[in-house]
Design brief:
It contains nine helices and ten strands. The chain is globular, with a radius of gyration of 16 Å. The protein has one domain: Spore Coat Polysaccharide Biosynthesis Protein SpsA, Chain A (Alpha-Beta Complex), CATH 3.90.550.10. Helix 1 links the parallel strand 1 and strand 2. The two termini are about 30 Å apart. The chain is of the alpha/beta class.
Amino acid sequence: MLSIIIPTLNEEKYLPLLLNSIKRQSFTDYEIIVADAGSKDKTVDIARQYGCKVVAGGLLPKGRNEGAKTASGNIFLFIDSDIVLPHPKFIENALQKMKEKNLGLAVFPLMPYGGKKIDKIGLSVWNAWIKLTQKFFPHGASIFLVKKDIHEAVGGFDEEISFVEDQPYVASCQKVAKFGIIDDPVLVSVRRYEKDGRFNVYFKYILADLHLLFIGPIKSDKFNYKFGHYEESPNKDKK
């Protein structure tokens, strides 16, 4: 079984897009666990309407870990709530490629739905960067396919990390298992770019990468990362 784990906080506008894309999958041997950090909107009601198991979460690392603690599957798919799976065979193909390549952890390229041309350019640069650095500085973001025993072997996500917790997690997993990129991009919203400013976001992530490379994981609030501070509706006409 596959356990799909989604951390949430006030995601009533985006969660249905993700859940609908999961329900369209050809692969059906899965459970969905929503780890909610205290939503004040209809997020929890929506999750239950879709048959998801709901557990108490927190910031992204804690939410993912709490979801994993209650998971029944031997493989976890950690996925952010503003992702959309691009086609009905995404999970089926990803699991097959994971098996063929004997991967313990797999990550995926990202492409935007909606937004502007610069968003596609920015994420294309990101995709090229994670491929270029996968052997010596492994990266991942927003979606991770990982074997349960690998997640447990590294102790899950470090809950003390306040920003870009993804990279230390991937690096830890790479030390105990084979890591790879499955070249099937998922669709991610551009809400953070639109809310916080594109160049502010780009610059912040570049600085965070440099911090990781030369100093280590970010455990202070110096980057002022916010979780769940979005209010605008997604453009449902764009996929």
